[in-house]
Amino acid sequence: MGRDEDLQAVHEFLQQAAPVVLCALKGMGGIGKTELALQYASAHTADYPGGVGWLNARENLELQLTPLDLEPAPSDWTQEQRIRRCWSYWGQGVKLLIFDDVQDDESVQPFIPPSGLGFKVLMTSRRRLLGSCYEVQVLSEEAALKLLRYLTDQERIDRELGTAKEICNWLGYLPLGLELVGRYLAWQPDLSLVDLWESLQAERLAAEAMLEAVPGMTAKVGVVAAFSLSWKQLSKNAQTLAMLLSVFALAEIPWRLVVDCWEGDDSTRLRDRELQQLSLLSRVRQEVYELHSLLREFFAVKLAQYPERESLITRFAEALTAEAKTVEQIVVIEEQERLKLSIPHLREAVQYHEYLSVDDKTWCCTASARFHESCSLFKKAEELYMQSLEIRENQSGAEHPDTATSLNNLATFYYSMGRYGEAEPLYLRSSKIREKYLGAEHPDTSASLNNLAGLYKFMGRYGEAEPLLLRSLEIREKQLGEKHPDTSISLNSLAELYKSMGCYGAAEPLYLRSLNIREKQLGGEHPDTAESLNNLATFFCATGRYGEAEPLYLRSSKIREEQLGEEHPDTADSLNNLALLYRSVRSYGKAEPLYLRSLKIREKQLGGEHPDIATSLNNLAELYHAAGWYGEAEPLYLRSLEILEKQLGAAHPNTVTCSKNLAGLREAMGRSNSPVKRLLNWIVDFVSTIFKR
Question: What is the distance, to the nearest Å, from the Cα of residue 324 to the centroid of all Cα atoms in its chain?
């Protein structure tokens, strides 16, 4: 089933014009190499009029090649002479010779026919042999289901199709596993697929359906026995490496993580010379490998019996925790690419909780959460932040400073999602714990004060925000120094507050000082530097200094696109602000595409109800209002106002501003209320809309 392309590829290869054409079918045990060779021989008998020969490479090859009616050779003949005599008994024309289950090149080399006799040679092997190898892959889902339908009946499989797909996926689409399960189902016609699935999940490779081959199968052994043949050929160190690999998640494995877990410097040699040679490990691409799902199960069974099991798992847990601690709060694109492969294994490390400290477990969760948040996978990020908090509260207690860190992380996530009502109590609780147990002058206390103040500033509660920010800045300057990156955070936050309050003279030096620290300490391309550039540019716009603002916006936008991605919410923020500048100087043609792009990013990444989407809608409506496109502006104002009232409340400054903007639009529309003016206004609006589009 599902091997038509393989059969065609093998046939095309064997038709090459060469003295002796050799092709080896390579793959893991149970993948169907022997079956493929059998099917090829059966389908192409007519292409080999000289005969087709089948040899079991694990048994005496000379005895299999010698015709029964051949007189015994003289005792002084060499093996080469005896084998050469056998070739003369073959018929005329092209001939096919198949060596099944070859262990190594040396064992079959003496039995390869000489050139000029018209032989084609096909071999099957778990090892990579000399010459050309054709890698046999697992079946597709479609072919796997087709095989199950063939072995049982179509109605039975289709009736429980979802469960059938789960079974195929768990079996890794391995032909041997699929055939064993299919024949087991045929043997028990009243067994439901759900019951079989539960048995497989409970007993894994020890399930009755996986154990033994049945009459009629090409394979003569079950899955475990098939894998055991390869296992026995591994050295002790290679077996240990295989068991270590079973601890990793069922996902692509970056080899650098394996090296970090392995004691010694021979992991690459064992990988290449043993595991790959025996098709027990697959290379996906440069330094990235993967295990078949059933092989992972098999190695896990071996690990459970291994005396040094705890040592292996501990090394895995420690290595993955070290990887987690490299994940910054802001994950840039370059880091996303590196971490994409690590994240499944970080999540897997948490499963081995008894081998991890509380700190290690939360680091793995937090690192995964930061990665998912950077990829705008917010639901998964929230689950991981909450899991981290749950671990802290259960293991360290509700009042522990580390619990405060998890509270702060979750609150910051909620703040970024516009869920301010959920963020505030978490920030308050985090701040209270830190001040009580770490002290009023601790940098972590300062961080909580700064974050809580930022929330109050956004909510328009300026009087509550200012003393918190002043105190946060004072702590950081005293404890960390005036040029520390964290000090720049407090400077930037205080500047943002003063700008919102209209205290421009107090805000500007703080913006400049924050930007200077970030450029020197973090570099000109850091996302925090981009934030300072963006905020300073917004300040310049607020004070009418558009010429100074534009290059800062452009630079901020470029950094964010390169470091965070073209569809990151922060990139949308820069685009929105640059559009705001162009609208202010009446460059409507430049402003509109930026507003639209910013809105599209926000709707895609943040969902339809985020306050930032309301901001984009309001700003786009402001543009249309200024351009005289009243018919397009009004529904945008209405949608923006609906979101703001729902998320922030009617008294929030942003809601009040949007409400005033809508009132201003309606007043402008009402001034042209005579029939003639309404008609002229409609014509102008219609023509402008057509021209704009």
Answer: 15
589 burial level (CB within 10 Å; 0-12, 13-18, 19+): exposed
For residue 323, pLDDT over 90 is answered with yes
Nearest CA to 20 out of 88, 115, 94, 87 is that of 115
Is the distance from CB of 33 to CB of 125 less than 8 angstroms? yes
* Residue appearing with tokens 């470091």: 563
**Cβ pair 86, 66 in contact under 8 A:** yes
Burial of 684 (0-12, 13-18, 19+ CB in 10 A): middle
The continuous run of DSSP H or E covering 95 comes out as strand 95-102
Both structure tokens of 73: 């050779």
Amino acid at 476: R
CA dihedral in degrees (182, 187, 193, 197; nearest 10)? -80
315 neighbors 323 (Cβ within 8 angstroms)? no
Q: Are 275 and 255 in contact (CB under 8 A)?
A: no
**Pairing status of strand 21-26 against strand 119-125:** parallel
| Angle at 601 (CA atoms; ends 545, 650), nearest 5 degrees | 75
CATH 3.40.50.300 positions along the chain are: 4-135
List, for residues 191-203, the tens digit of each pLDDT value: 999 999 999 999 9
CATH 1.25.40.10 intervals, the chain: 399-502
Cα dist from 64 to 4, 73, 400, 418, 672, whole Å = 30, 15, 75, 76, 102
Query: For the domain bounded by 399-502, which CATH number is listed?
Result: 1.25.40.10
DSSP 293-350: HHHHHHHHHHHHT-TTHHHHHHHHHHHHHHHHTT--SS--HHHHHHHTTTHHHHHHHH
Reply yes or no on whether the pLDDT at 314 is more than 70. yes
Provide the pLDDT for residue 693. Answer: 46
Phi/psi-derived region of residue 667, left when phi > 0, alpha when psi is between -120 and 50, beta in every other case: alpha
pLDDT digits (tens, 9 = 90+) for 492-508: 999 999 999 999 999 99
Distance CA 673, CA 108 (A): 97
- How is residue 130 annotated by DSSP? S
**Class of the CATH-defined domain 4-135:** alpha beta
> How do residues 292-309 score in pLDDT, each as one tens digit?
999 999 999 999 999 999
Q: Pairing relation of β-strands 288-290 and 282-285?
A: antiparallel
Please answer whether residues 554 and 579 qualify as being in contact, where contact means their C-beta atoms are separated by less than 8 angstroms.
no
For residue 687, count other CB atoms closer than 10 A to its CB. Answer: 10
The reply to whether the predicted model has a pTM over 0.85 is: no
